[in-house]
């Protein structure tokens, strides 16, 4: 039984006969059309990286960031509608502040993810609202160590060692699965995150993009910060060099096939 074109996508509170909520799927499509965002959790901390597509050369560099700080030790990276991201970041800040006021301690990552997931899921229940067209990656350090969660437009939240969202997520996931998280330092994770973003970037569709990198780790004293400029430059050079080496290998293989 098909539900396409039968009106079941007019309200988020309506299921189709085959059990689908089309507006949530449309929200996920908005995420899939956005720039790639990834998170890597290693033993020393968490690294966030985002491919921010630049639609004009006139944009001011480092403006309109897709990685934000939602509390001193909480980092949020996103793929999807930027306006929705800002709203959810404000929500995370309010939840962190409220928890600290009540319990006089930092909010654990699992509680942040749970409360944000419940908030996002509430917007899939009523016909007067629409789902958030954004997937968010939450990174922080709590008493249990580094933590990384992803909250989807449906409200589902899951903890990860490595995850990816956005238009290049399939390529990024393939590269993430090759990493050895147990034996990787945070600085190495920064370089690998940059390499994965460059690998997932599609030059044929989006020529201009800006790489954003941040971390929350022992080296940053448990605070979420954008990586230092020297490490950022080193990571970009590593990513570009790796990309050139892959292209050279592909060209050599093509030459061998021609022979």
From TrEMBL:
Q: Which PROSITE patterns match?
A: PROTEASOME_ALPHA_1 (PS00388), PROTEASOME_ALPHA_2 (PS51475)
Q: Where in the cell is it found?
A: Cytoplasm; Nucleus
Gene Ontology cellular component annotations, sorted alphabetically: proteasome complex
Q: Where is this region: Disordered?
A: 235-259
The protein's assembly and partners: The 26S proteasome consists of a 20S proteasome core and two 19S regulatory subunits.
Q: Which GO terms describe its molecular function?
A: hydrolase activity
Q: Which InterPro entries match?
A: Ntn_hydrolases_N, Proteasome_alpha, Proteasome_alpha-type, Proteasome_asu_N, Proteasome_sua/b
Q: Which gene encodes it?
A: PRE10
SUPFAM superfamilies annotated for this entry?
A: N-terminal nucleophile aminohydrolases (Ntn hydrolases)
Belongs to which family?
Answer: Belongs to the peptidase T1A family.
Keywords annotated in UniProt: Cytoplasm, Hydrolase, Nucleus, Proteasome
What's the protein name?
Answer: Proteasome subunit alpha type
Q: Which Pfam families match?
A: Proteasome, Proteasome_A_N
- Origin organism is Coemansia umbellata
């Amino acid at each position: 039984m098909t539900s396409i074109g039968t009106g079941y996508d007019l309200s988020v509170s309506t299921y189709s006969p085959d059990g689908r909520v089309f507006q949530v799927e449309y929200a996920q499509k908005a995420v899939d059309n956005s720039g790639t965002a990834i998170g890597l959790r290693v033993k020393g901390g968490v690294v966030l990286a985002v491919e921010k597509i630049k639609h004009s050369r006139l944009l001011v560099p480092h403006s309109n960031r897709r990685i934000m700080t939602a509390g001193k030790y909480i980092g949020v990276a996103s793929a999807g509608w930027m306006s929705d991201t800002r709203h959810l970041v404000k929500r995370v800040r309010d939840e962190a502040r409220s928890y600290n006021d009540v319990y006089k301690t930092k909010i654990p990552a699992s509680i942040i993810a749970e409360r944000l997931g419940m908030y996002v899921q509430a917007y899939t229940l009523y016909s007067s609202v629409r789902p958030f067209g954004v997937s968010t990656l939450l990174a922080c350090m709590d008493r249990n160590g580094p933590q990384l969660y992803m909250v989807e437009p449906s409200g589902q939240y899951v903890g990860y060692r490595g995850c990816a969202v956005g238009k290049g997520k399939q390529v990024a996931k393939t590269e993430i699965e090759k990493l050895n998280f147990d034996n990787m330092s945070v600085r190495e994770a920064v370089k690998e995150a940059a390499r994965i973003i460059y690998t997932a970037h599609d030059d044929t569709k989006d020529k201009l993009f800006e790489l954003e990198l941040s971390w929350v780790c022992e080296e940053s004293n448990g605070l979420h910060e954008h990586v230092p400029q020297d490490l950022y430059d080193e990571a970009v050079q590593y990513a570009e060099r790796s990309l050139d080496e892959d292209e050279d290998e592909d060209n050599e293989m093509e030459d061998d096939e021609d022979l």
